[in-house]
Amino acid sequence: MVNERWSRLHLSDAVAYRxxxxxxxxxxxxxxxxKYLLADGITVDIIQFLxxxxxxxELIEFLTNLYDVSIDELQTDVENIVNxxxxxxxxxxxxxxRNTDFCTVITGKSEYALSTQSDHKIxxxxxxxxxxxxKPFKVFWEITYRCxxxxxHCYLDLATIQQANLSGFSxxxxxxxxxxxxxxxxxxxxxDLVITGGEASLHPGFIRILTRATFLRFGVSVLTNGDxxxxxxxxxxxxxPIKQISxxxxxxxxxxxxxxxxxxxxxxxxxNVQLLHTNGANVGITGVLTKGSLDxxxxxxxxxxxMGIEYEISPLIFPTAQGxxxxxxxxxxxxxxIEACKDLGxxxxxxxxxxxxxxFRVTPAGEVNPCEMLRNTSYGNVLTKRxxxxxxxxDRTKWICDFDQLIMAKTQQCSSCGIRQHCTDCLGLGMVxxxxxxxxxxxxxxxxxxxYSVWG
Length: 456
Known about the structure:
The protein is of the alpha/beta class.
């Protein structure tokens, strides 16, 4: 029985979670994959009581006052949920418990099934929940502008870095402030944290930041070029509970090294990918479809899939953050995109925009923007203000008030379009392509037509 084992029950270190609007949103970072949990009712109470070190008897007393059911029914529900959460790796007992695939509970406002999924639709539900409550959920954090590569499609152009340097910025987010910022973001409810750069591992406090983030139960993704990683960084990436380590490989050795402008990068990156994978890290490889790279991307996908490593390919190439169109020269032709849709399963699709509502970007200079592309919209600077203050700023409040109207003004222009489900257009893409958030992206339209021609 759970009451006999409660003192030996605890949350797995591989679980990142936050409470949003009376629900628990959790990432369960199992070896080489991540599952997702979204639940309410007693599940939330169980996890909160365990996290706060409270006794089983206190939980039952609390639930007795909350629900009009017998103690026996409450204990049965708690037993079922704990067994389910243990099976799914959310909770850990010192001794084994019986296995269950799912459990149904009768307490709470309605009957519901508690289960975990690897389907990303549940993450969309998390985003929607956070958006409903105007709560920050995802932060894309550029901790440094330093990088060992000069990728042809990079949206961080020289003008962006020079603009930051005008204020005396020295390319790295200050480490000590980074550690306190993590506490503040956790307090505000941020769960999904993407740590990137530049090349994030070049930040002098990278391992300290990563360690603190996982300790605070963020679902951490690391975007790294995977090239010149030190042994200490490789060990941290292998040992810490990280949602995913995302590493780009753009083609074969010749294409990759030319694209990133560093000879030898392909071989070193491949060695580090293999090492991380062997050590059990959740490594995912990304590829960008560019002119002439399709055949090598096909081969890469076959090789990495045979290794058990996910390889995702995207045809999306954005202008730079300041609107420079140099990266657009690397875009694949429509014929290449259609072939990629057929042979690689690429499919562009519409996503809900949550920029500035529950998704944010933090620059190395401390500026908080709605997303990577909307750098001219700032809610404040976390080097001078707490993250919570920035979330409550007048600029963000105005953004929230205007957001639905901005989205409506953009989407109404395509209200009669029959292929909108394939469209990747967004406020940020309109801004960097045309200097106007609600303007339509010709590139998004081209991609949508290519995807539609294959998938319908």
